[in-house]
Structures are given as C-alpha cells and as structure tokens.
Design a protein that fits this description.
heterodimer; A: alpha/beta; six-stranded mixed sheet; four-stranded antiparallel sheet; 10 strands; B: alpha+beta; 2 domains; 11 helices; rod-shaped
Chain lengths: ~240, ~375
C-alpha cells in the first residue's frame, strides 16, 4: 500500500483569463521510506506541489492522502495537527527565528505539545546532536554559519520525529562541502526510515535519492528510479 | 519552549515596538488614574471643608405666617413666631436612611430676657455640637457650665459685661464665663447659655425653637437628606443651607465630566496606538508566522502568541500606569485644593481598575491584529520568503 497518494492533483491560481495552472493534474504514489527528488525548471510547479503535499495549500481539485488519511478533508486545526505529527519542513533559506537560540528554534515544533520543558529540551538537544551541532545550542542564528543554520533547520524538522520530511532546495545557499554534509545527513535520515521528498535543481543532489519525479509546465513528465549512489560521489557540486 | 516563551522573546527582540505600545497604554492609564485620583481626593477635600462650613441644614417649626424680616431688618417688632419643636421628636432624625451622614445636630431654644433693663435674645445651645456647627467661634474665656453664659461681642459691649461678671435674670444668678469674639453674624448680639439652662430660664422645658444640622453627604444630594428629615419630622420646615457647598460640588462635577472626556479620548488614542503598532508587528512577522503554521501551529496558537504579547505589555502598563498616575495626583493635588491637608491614599479599587482597564484596552485592540495573523496563509508567507 502506498504511503503518499496523489490522484489527479490540480492547482490553479486566479480565475477566467487571469487563471494560471500551476499544477495541471498529477498522480503518483510514494512508498514509506522512499527518498524522492522533484526536479524541473523554475516555475514548473515544484514548490506548489510540495506545498500541497505539505498540507499547506489546498488543491483546486484531485485527491491527496497520507497513510490513508484524506488530508484536505480535514479541518484547519486537524490539518495543523497533521503537519505537526506527520511532517517536517526544511526550507531553502533556513528560516530560523532570529530572536531564538538554536536550541529554542529546534524546540519550536514542540511549543504546542503538552510535554515537560525538560523533555522538550532533551529532544531538541538530541536532534542537534544528530545533525552534529551539540555545543552551539545557545547561539543565536545570526552567530552561526549557513551550513550550521541548515543543520539547525533539519534538526527542527526532525525533533518531533515525523515520518515524512519535505525539503525545498536544501542546498540552495550552501557551498560544496556543506552541501555534501547536508545531503549525507538527509541520506542517513532516510536510511533510518524517514520518507523524504526533496525539491532541487541539482542533478548531483538528486543522485542521493532513489527516485525522481520530473515536472514541466505543471505536469509530471517523468517518474524514474535512480540508483541512490548514497553520497559516494566525493566531489559533487549541488 | 512554550507559546509564552515565544511571546516574551519577541517582546525582548522588538523593544521599540513594545515600548511604543507600552507608552500608548501608559499615557492613557496614568492620566485616567491621575484624574480619577484627583476627583476622589477633591471629594474628600470637600467633605473636610463641609465640616468647616458648619451647619448646612436648618430645622424650623412649621408656620403659616410670612416672615417680617428682610436683610436683618425687623418690620414687625417680632421677627419670629414663638412656635417650638418638641425636643423628644429630634430622636427620629437618627432613624433616617442617611443618619450616618449627620455629623452634628444642634437644638437651639430662643427667647427674650431682660438683662440690666435691656431686652436681649437668649439662645440655649448644645456647646458640644456647636464646636462642629460653628467651628469659626473663638471664645475668650470658658464654655459656660450650669449657670454660666457666653456673650456675643456686641451684647457684651452694650450690656457692659465682661468675663467673670455676675447678673440676675428671673431670680437666677448667672455668670459670664466667656465672650465670643466678633463673628460678623447675629451671634454677636446674643446671649448664649446651655440648652437646659436656657429652657429653664425661658420656661420652655422639652422644647426647642430650631435645630441646626451638619450633614456630610458628598455622595448623596443634600436635598435627599432634607426630604428624609422632613418625613421624620412632619411638623417642621427643613431647609438646606447649601449655596457654597453646591457651587463647589458643581465645579467638581464639571471637572469630573471633563476628566471622563479626557480619559475617553486618551483611551481611544491609546487603543489606536496599540492597534496600529500590533498590526505593523504582525506584518513584519508574516514569514515567521508562516513557519509557525507550517510546523503545525493552529490558528488559535498564533492568536494566543499575539494576545500574550499584548497581555504582557498591557499588564506592565497597568502597574506602571497606576504608579505614575498615583505620583502625578500627589504632585498635582496641592494646585487643585490649594492646601496640603488632603493626602492621596492608595485605592485598591482604582489600582485593580487601572490594571484591568489596561489589560482590556491592550487585548481588545490586539484582537484584530491577532485575527489578521491567524489568517495569514502559510503558503503565501513561505512563497514570500
């Protein structure tokens, strides 16, 4: 049984003459534990697709379910709960909250969870440890490098141990070395069982994944398996 | 990490905006506290002044005749009818609704006597009550005892009697125990004795000619007291001597209305400052709110963060506003009352009211920005990143 199931997903912005078809009817299934890359040129509908998959953007038509749950049949609050329980997000520009320390940023998804502060702190410290950032937890985002901020963003996305991680151009603002470290990190998370859907322009980054969905003009034009060379490429440039 | 922590961290980060909201609320709350504190203190000042004004209600026997005096000039030889009130009936005044507001009641018996071959008016009074009813009296000598009398300054001069002198009236020997310093009133012409002594000399035991009452009633109109006493003593005519007090009360009422107006305007301006600043703050944080929503914050969580921020700042404004208002009242009060005799006292109701009003203003003005924040579409917010 598929874990993520999209059936004829459509997203149209505007109406009549001003209508723009961002996603024009996509169907696919993603199994649990897959590492999928979504590729395509700018404006092809990648980010719109990711936001619909992330329960953030209601499709104009079509069906979308995760683990059998019809996501867009849920109410606003239930959808927010679904995002908290099921999904983690890593954004291109990190988007850390600048007035919170790295540890507090990682704790953010737990802010609405009924749990002792001690346990929240322990979970956040563990997540920072997993991304190799222990010891810098009390710094502010502005006092850290881009690579470190990306790691914090990943730690924040996995702190509540969601089964699915969405990453939008995770290496977009990083140098080669840091990109490799981040991709290794994502690969490790996938190997631990996390389903990852990543949007990127980079074929090199895509080579870490096992399946590619290529999009063009809002349509799914290619769905092919990749070999998932596990970061064995030593000099990739994403 | 809780929603409260997020709110607190944001306040610390955006100090200028938080300060602006705080200032808007502070000005409104402290001004309201200062004005209301001033009104309350001036009320107490008036209450104190009422005591200094002495009697403000007069109880007279009911008469069907018109007075034959005008401006102190008697046109009929007799300026008042010799009707009296029964002294025993006066106890009923203690049963009226506002009995607690009666500070003093001075029954007076009046009658003509012949002293050294001259007609004089003898007034029998309760000297204890007179201390409150006529606080301006200054006596050279002592307050009369059983067979002593107090002479008005003019009476002393005309009768050529000084303190310590003796004289006979209706077979009783009386001693001048003191002379009243000139008051500029009719009291200067009178001979005063103790009520029971005068009643005995005038053969009017158990009867009084008039009663002066000092009523301290800033919270209720003096007319209410007059009508209550009238009902208790139906055979009497009860009148209010209220011109001075009334003019002060009217002035205070104007000031009270002006204060309420100023407070209302400041509350409105303060609320607008909070509204505009909080809306600006929400707009600045669009992306941040988008991230929160993507991470699973419900709309209600976003609303709570905004309202928590407003609540924390408003609570601070409530406490600081009361303290500043309290201090301002202390500084301003001498200019309004012209003396330092009235102090400003801590009023827990005003303090609680200031706190609650600041909280209400801050929260009410932040409801719209909070709803605006909750309505931010996470997709739009993230697309703008």
């Amino acid at each position: 049984m598929s874990y993520i199931h999209a059936e004829n997903l459509v997203k149209q912005y505007g109406t009549a003459d001003a209508a723009v078809m961002a996603v024009g009817g996509m169907s696919f299934r993603i199994k649990m534990g897959e590492f999928v890359v979504v590729m395509g040129e700018s404006g092809s509908g990648k980010s719109t697709l990711l936001s619909m998959m992330g329960a953030l953007n209601t499709p104009t038509s079509g069906e979308y379910s995760v683990d059998g749950l019809e996501v867009y049949k849920l109410g606003q609050d239930q959808r927010a709960d679904f995002r908290r329980e099921f999904l983690g997000f890593v954004f291109q520009s990190f988007h850390l909250v600048p007035y919170l320390t790295l540890l507090e940023n990682v704790m953010l998804p737990l802010a609405t969870v009924k749990m002792s502060s001690k346990k929240k702190r322990a979970l956040a410290e563990d997540a920072l440890l997993r991304v190799g950032l222990n010891g810098k937890s009390h710094r502010l985002p502005g006092q850290t490098s881009g690579g470190e901020q990306e790691r914090v963003a990943i730690a924040r996305a996995i702190v509540n141990e969601p089964p699915i991680l969405f990453a939008d151009e995770p290496s977009g603002n990083l140098d080669t070395k840091t990109t490799r470290e981040v991709m290794d990190l994502l690969k490790n998370l996938n190997e631990e069982g996390m389903t990852i859907v990543m949007v990127t322009h980079s074929p090199e980054c895509a080579s870490y994944t096992r399946r590619m969905l290529r999009i063009s003009d809002g349509l799914l034009v290619e769905d092919v398996p990749l070999n998932g060379s596990k970061g064995g490429i030593q000099a990739i440039v994403c | 990490m809780t929603l409260k922590d997020i709110a607190l961290r944001n306040i610390r980060r955006r100090k200028a905006k938080a300060g602006f909201v705080l200032a808007g609320l502070l000005i409104a709350v402290s001004t309201a506290v200062a004005l209301l504190g001033l009104i309350e203190a001036m009320n107490r000042d008036i209450q104190q002044k009422l005591e200094e004004y002495g009697a403000n209600i007069l109880i007279l026997p009911k008469t069907e005749n018109l007075s034959l005096t005008y401006g102190g000039l008697s046109l009929g030889g007799v300026s008042f009818e010799m009707q009296e009130i029964r002294q025993a009936d006066l106890g009923r005044v203690k049963t009226i609704k506002n009995a607690a507001n009666v500070a003093a009641m001075g029954p007076t018996v009046l009658g003509a006597l012949e002293v050294k071959e001259r007609k004089v008016l003898l007034a029998g009074v309760d000297f204890q009550a007179t201390k409150i009813l006529k606080p301006w009296w200054k006596i050279a000598g002592a307050v009369p005892t059983d067979f002593g009398v107090l002479l008005g300054a003019e009476a002393s001069r005309i009768l050529a009697l000084e303190t310590g002198d003796h004289f006979k009236v209706n077979g009783s020997e009386l001693q001048v125990s003191g002379i009243l310093e000139p008051t500029g009133s009719q009291d200067d012409q009178l001979v005063f004795a103790r009520l029971d002594t005068a009643q005995s000399l005038l053969h009017k035991e158990g009867r009084v000619s008039m009663v002066e009452v000092a009523a301290l009633c800033t919270a209720c109109p003096i007319e209410a007291m007059v009508s209550q006493i009238s009902r208790a003593l139906p055979d009497t005519k009860v009148m209010a001597i209220q011109q001075v007090v009334q003019s002060r009360m009217e002035t205070l009422d104007y000031f009270r209305q002006f204060s309420y107006g100023v407070t209302a305007v400041l509350v409105l301006v303060g609320s607008l400052v909070v509204l505009v600043t909080m809306m600006g703050s929400v707009r600045e944080r669009t992306s941040e709110i988008g991230i929160f929503r993507a991470m699973g914050f419900r709309r209600s969580h976003v609303i709570r963060i905004v309202l928590l921020e407003a609540g924390i700042i408003s609570a601070m404004a409530g406490i600081l506003g009361y303290l500043i208002g309290f201090g301002s009242t202390k500084l301003a009060l001498p200019f309004f009352t012209g003396s330092n005799s009235i102090g400003v006292i801590f009023d827990p109701v005003l303090a609680a009211g200031a706190f609650a009003a600041a909280l209400l203003m801050g929260l009410a003005s932040s409801v719209y920005p909070a709803l605006m924040a909750a309505r931010i579409d996470p997709t739009d917010a993230l697309r703008a990143l």
